[in-house]
Model the fold of this input.
Amino acid sequence: MIVRAQPSLLATATLGILASSCGVSEPELPPHLEFSQPVLELGLERTGQVEIRNTGGQSIGPVELIPGEIREPGGSMVPGSRLSLDPVEVPTLNPGDERLLTLELSLDGSMNSGEYDTWVRARGPEVSALLAVRFTVLSELEAAVTSVTIVAPSFDPRAGDVINLPLEARDTAGTLLQGVPVYWSVQPSQAGYVTKNGRFVGYKTGPMSVIAQAGTISDTLALDILHRNIDGSFIVSRTGREVERYTSDLWLHGDVLYSGTWGTRQTGTQSSFGNTLNIWDISTSGTTLNTIEKIFSIEIDARVVNDVKVRADGELAIITHEGSDDALNGITILDLDNPLAPTVVSRFTSELESGVHNVWIEGDYAYLVVDGVGNGLRILDISDPENPSVVARFWAGESFLHDVYVRDGLAFLSHWNAGLVILDVGNGIADGSPENPVEVSRLSELGGQTHNAWYWPESGYVFVGEEDFDSPGIMHVVDLRNLLEPREVATFRVPGQTPHNFWLDEGSGTLYLAWYGNGIRALDVTGDLLGELDHQGREIAGFIYNGGSGTSCNRGSGDTCTWAPQVHRGLVWVSDMNQGLVGLEPPR
Amino acid sequence: MVILTTACSPVPGERLLVTSGFTDQIFVLDARTGRVTDSLSLDRRPGERDEPHSVTVSPDGSHFYATLSHGEPSFWKYESDGLRLVGRLTLPANGASRVRLSPDGSIAAIPDYWLSGGGATSRVAFVRTDDLTVLANPKLCPAPHDAVFSPSGDRVAVICPLSDELVIIKTDGFVEINRSKIGETGDRPLNAAWMAEGKNLLVALANGSKLLKLEISEDIRESSQVITGTQPAQLAVAPGGSPVVVANRGSGSITITTSDGTRSTEIELPGPHPHGVAFGQDPTVVYVTYEGDTRTLGGVVAIDVDTGAILWRTEVGSFTLGVAVLP
Done:
């Protein structure tokens, strides 16, 4: 007979004591995010409120609140329209906590009437929630319309060509009606984008229709969109290998290429630091026909030499300091009497102690980007390079300045979450000068993380980079034909990574965009620009020249990690963080 | 009778949290051996430098907090168990340096170390740690660097390097109750530590190469000085009240001293620019970070304060700054 002994109460109690002394406890429910309602119907309202809650058992934070894009019913993104949220981030939500979220729509005047959908995502570490948002754009005068006619273009446009489609809306008497709201659409949907004013750009090639409706009357225009036919490819022509340090920015002048270095790089047991400016001779070959040789290096007190610029006359260069040992940072001015062996003229640190991230030189003035919120721009008089002095300062009032670009007496400040800020530094439109910069205008609604800008006066466009590693980022095209009212008209995206620096070959209308792990991209930016440029066959070529996943730089590897391009003597030179320098034959 | 034996999961010993300003990380080290056991990324902008600066642990050990100085300065909250990020607050500030907690851990003080502000008066953010709400953000002096709660938690000593001042705030209402110039003009006070009795404050003068001991009552009165190495940075008082250890950034050493300076030793560190100082529960062992320089990595050393012996050294990080002990 087998007797099974029941566990005694003493033994059970002992087990319990031991269990609790080992810290064994009931598992907590994980955090859980939810909105107070799944759908927010705004109708004709332009603001609304909901709550975001943590209904789980653990704290969660930070919780980012990410607005969706505004897209028309056909699916095309509407430039210049945006959903804004307040707050954009909740620092932490303990279990049971909730926060009020305010939504505000800012709609471009070109929007067609109709019902629209967008969304808000609440994203915490590993947990998220989604809110659907719906709103309506209504028009007037629709009832008076009895006939609608779209005036056809005289040619078949290519994908990416922006054409105006005049429209005649008439009443029963045949009178031409002015100011009639018109609903435009494209069939098939997402084949193109058309504004409220009848500006159209095709995304796909082949037959499609543009439909205009005013009231209950509509007209359909059949189009056959041609291919843009701008294929091309990059070819690697020269390389300059730098694998001991990470490479940052580059600048070429004459036969010389100057490149900065960045951060801390470990190769095996060796650590190397971003304390060096490298100088390369591009006129002769290195160890093989296609390589360039590093001729000289200058070590400075810095852990990052983020930027190098050479003045247009080639007489001097400026390099930037971050993370200096003496905590003074600032800039170093170099004499380029021997361009292959620069000498230090001076180091300037006053008001620059928190670090200088970027620089632009224009004549006797250097425009410096000082790290940190509240610092902004410093303009230096460098007419006496041995004794420069700060002559002007500017900060946009919020966020921090990331980059500066000066052209035609205008300084374009890429001011992170304050957007693009334009200063008169000699243009005259606002009576500004380098010693008295005056703000002309700004465009705050660019999605934040405004990183860099290139102004093309001939076209009136500014190409603005958004360095967003989360989304990822995009390039915004801003129409600056009215300097006082900049507005976004187009975008360009490459999925998987975020863009970095740009260079525009103005002669060919080709914008070269460094796109980190996604390599170098070449974009046709000729003509008018509108809508989503990545849907228009305008990308001439994209090249991940050293391989890699395309979604990450994988720093420290040999993978592609493109920092900046520059067109110089027929080649597109790029600095690559991981491998150094690459000179590419351009795709056109 | 049944004898039951069981084995509990091992409770980890003390760990060090160390900020690496130029790799945007917090490293976690075994405090006994100096071995790196983990790292946390605070790299909000992978293409830019964000600079984790200061790190501190709540009195009950359940959470730790760090500041990020660059980009848009921010304040990060982690659960110690699992090293899990549970909150992040973008600070209403132009810069961020140290973070200090009230004795009960409910409030954090983060000065806005706005060095490039041209002398503009700057603030200290007082943040409720539970939900990361900013309770107050008073304007006090140009580029405050440290703001230390008194042992009772009723006052905060704010250190103002650019104006050579000490400002005393009462935590009830966060209003200023006293202000005094300390040291000589240009001495640049940087960091401070209260003595356990809450009546005396030790202040490191970065340009004065000394420690001031100040009596804090209705007046602020200097009672003694201790000569340190050059550029004293952080300082910490051992559990029990003695000794005091000061990191001398300029001379590459630490000073181990009694608070009145009657017994003081200077010990050279094996790495450049000592910066952060922290004690764990053992008052005989101090942990000191060193920044490294533009050619070398930073690191951490553990030192026996009685003998001056270096117990271990670990090279870790670049521009290695703050250190705190996780119990």
Q: What stands out?
A: Chain A has three domains: 33-137, 152-225, 235-585.
